Amino acid sequence: MSGRTMMLVVSMALCVATVVVVLVYQLGWERKRIALAQRQKEEQLRMEQSYYEILERQNQQLRSYAHDAKNHLEAIRNLNQDPKVEQYIAQMEQQLQAYTRRCHSGNRALDVMVDKYVTACELKNIAFTYDVQLCNLGGVEDFDLVAILGNLLDNALTAAQDSQGKWMELATARRNGYQVVVVENSCDRPPIVGEEGLRSTKAGGEDHGFGLKSVAKALKKYEGDFQWDYDQEKRRFTMTVMIGQRVSVRESRRMAQDAKC
Question: Among 3.90.228.20, 3.30.565.10, 3.30.390.50, 3.40.50.1000, what is the CATH number of 107-261?
C-alpha cells in the first residue's frame, strides 16, 4: 500500500509539474508573440515615415512642375484670343491644382499625412474635413507624428468606411500649453473595452490593438495623454489627444524606470 501511495504521489507530482511547464511555456510564448508584434509595429512606423518622406519629395517635384506649367499657361492666355482656348486653359489649371498640396499648415510632415488621408477617403467615398491652421503640431517629431496621427486616422478611416455615415474629421488647437488633436468619425458599432482599454474590432483582433499602444508610447515623450468618447445616439466616436512639451532623454528614461516599477 505504501508503494502504491508513493507511486500515486509521484504521478500527481509529475502531472502538476507537466501542467506548470506547459503554462510557463505558453506564457513565455505569449510574451514573445507580443514582443514580436510590437517590433513589427515599430518597423511599420519606420516604413510609413520613409513612405511619407518619399511622398513629400514626389510632391515637391509635382509642385515645381505645376508652378512652371501655370506660368506657361498664363503666358499662353496672354497671347490667346480664342474663347475655346481660354476654356481649355482653365480646365488644365484645375487639373494642375489637384496635383498641388491641399493642406498648407506649415508642417510638411503633417501636410503630407493629411493629403494621404484626403486621397484615401476620396477613394472610399468618405467625407473628410480637417482644420490644422490653429496648430500644426510643429513641436512633435516626425516619427512620433506618424505614430500618433497615423494610428488615429487609420482607426477612424476603418470605422468610417464600415458605417453608414462615412465621415471623419481632424482638428488641432492649443489649450493650456498643450497641443490638442481631436479626431472624430462615424461609427455604427460601439467600441469594445477590455482590461487594457479599447480592443481592436479588425479581423484577427488578437494580432491588432497595438496602434493605441504606439500612440501612448509616443505621448510619454511629451507628457501627453488621450481619452475617447462614444455617442451611441449620434454614432460618433471621438478621440482627444493632449500633447505637451517634449521630455528630455534623461527624464524619459526616469519615466520608463518608474513605469517598470
Answer: 3.30.565.10
